[in-house]
Specification:
Structural class: alpha+beta
Distance between the termini: 21 Å
Shape: elongated
Radius of gyration: 25 Å
Number of helices: 3
Order of helices and strands: HHEEEEEH
Strand order of the largest sheet: 3-2-1-4-5
Helix content: 40-55%
Strand content: 25-35%
Largest sheet: 5 strands, antiparallel
């Protein structure tokens, strides 16, 4: 295994995988940060929709310009029953319509993916250390055999 990682192709692939995982982590952090910068308001859960292991909630919330908006959001955090009040983050477009929305307590997905990418990056750092470490001569070999 170590010999195939130390080859030119192995070094290239391990370096490329490390760069890809780091780019993925940066993208995840930017997405999480962007979602935290959205406007937020209190919404009322109208309906809880359960399909297999997935759960969604249909919520209604007031818009800053007046009126209300009804949307179905993925429920990854705590369970929200019909009639409960929840915090919703939303992003408005230039025309005042809701472009995207999410439950405010929906950060578990970002944490899980962040930890998973952190573990992958740690493993890839070790893999790169193995790939780029100098080759040690075999024990008992003479300088002529190297």
């Amino acid at each position: 295994m170590a010999n195939s990682v130390k080859s030119r192709r192995g070094r290239f692939i391990s370096g490329l995988a490390l760069v890809g995982a780091c780019v993925g982590l940066v993208f995840l952090l930017q997405t999480a940060n962007e979602q935290h910068s959205w406007s937020s308001t209190e919404a009322v859960v109208q309906e809880r929709i359960k399909s297999g292991k997935n759960a969604k909630v249909r919520v209604e919330f007031p818009l800053p310009a007046g009126g209300t908006h009804v949307t179905t959001l993925s429920e990854n955090g705590s369970i929200h029953e019909t009639g409960t009040r929840v915090e919703v983050r939303f992003d408005l477009g230039d025309d005042g319509t809701v472009v995207d929305a999410a439950l405010a307590d929906n950060d578990q997905g970002f944490w899980v993916m962040g930890v998973m990418l952190g573990v992958v990056i740690s493993g890839l750092i070790v893999m790169n250390l193995v790939a780029w470490s100098p080759v040690r001569p075999a024990a008992g070999s003479s300088p002529e055999e190297r």
